[in-house]
Amino acid sequence: MNLTEEVRLYGLIGDPVAGSRSPWIHNTVFNELGLKAAYLAFHVEPTRLGASIAGFRAIGMGGFNITIPHKQTVIGHLDGLDPFAEKLGAVNTVAVTPEGLIGYNTDGPGLVSVLRRQIGPIEDKKVLILGAGGAARGIAGSLMYNGVKEVGICNRTWTKADALIRDLEIFGKAHIVDREDFKNYDLVINTTSVGMYPFEDATPVDVKYLKPDAYVCDIVYKPRRTRLIREAEATGHKVVFGIDMLIEQAVLAEQIWFSLSDEQVDRARTLLQTELMKALQPTEGEKK
Ligand code: ATR
Questions:
Q1: What is the pLDDT of residues 126-165, one digit of tens each?
Q2: Is 133 touching ligand 1 by the criterion CB < 6 Å?
Q3: Which of 16, 141, 21, 10 minimizes the C-alpha distance to 70?
Q4: Is 67 in the pocket of ligand 1 (CB under 6 A)?
Q5: Mind listing the pLDDT tens digit for each residue in 71-119?
Q6: How far does the centroid of ligand 1 lie from the alpha carbon of residue 278, in Å?
Q7: Can you give the pTM of this predicted structure?
Q8: What is the DSSP letter of 170?
Q9: For residues 68 and 73, what is the distance between their CA atoms, to the nearest angstrom?
Q10: What distances in angstroms separate CA 90 from CA 76, 77, 135, 200, 267, one per listed residue?
């Protein structure tokens, strides 16, 4: 990358940011598309969030991402919000515009975009979400915002599922679902960390409880083919990989920051597929 004076800075703020793949993902895309941009990660503790954002404004950053624990508190430092981010009350991407700093959320919308492209319309789907954490909230909210027929939630800790359902009321009515009702759902999305490296032998659900033609999606992307995905494929389910959600979240952020052509967006997706597949291969030390 040639860091001339035309290059604008993009970045991520979070606490922690160590281990984030965002700098690698975005710089890979910037290089591929020949954008005059560079992306860095900034470790910002909560007490320095306001000062950091004021600094970002002052130096004319091109745009930035926000991660834990700032996704909600950042809102008080912005000038406007996209309608979905406003409803969800959480921001992970900020655009620097002539109107000021505008907050967006690409977490759930990334998955919705993948689902639309890979399985078609989602409005007629009953969706079962496994888990009730932050990822479940963004995904359920985005699915409801985009008009899915029904959202069911199943979580190990019942009280957390109940709290999530109340939190989602702004989008509509979600229900708690027990295992005996899993067969009513057309699409099952694992949002828990069960099955994630290094605990690849675990699975959040036995696929025998699912509708035989249900789509199965796992947002865990390391390993790419989790035990849930392997068992779903073996029993004839169509599957959606977590890696595609990761890619789409990043591509949506790029589309917010730059006016990209369809051809550039496709090139970014294809490149990230290839490069992430390589990057997520287990290293010699990780192989069993
Ligand atoms: P995230 O922001 O990634 O969603 P989180 O907010 O910590 O992370 O949520 C993790 C989710 O994975 C929760 O739904 C959690 O279930 P609990 O609410 O019962 O804690 C779920 N989870 C994590 N480990 C699990 C396990 N071993 N079995 C079942 N569910 C698990």
A1: 999 999 999 999 999 999 999 999 999 999 999 999 999 9
A2: yes
A3: 16
A4: no
A5: 999 999 999 999 999 999 999 999 999 999 999 999 999 999 999 999 9
A6: 27
A7: 0.95
A8: G
A9: 10
A10: 11, 12, 11, 30, 29
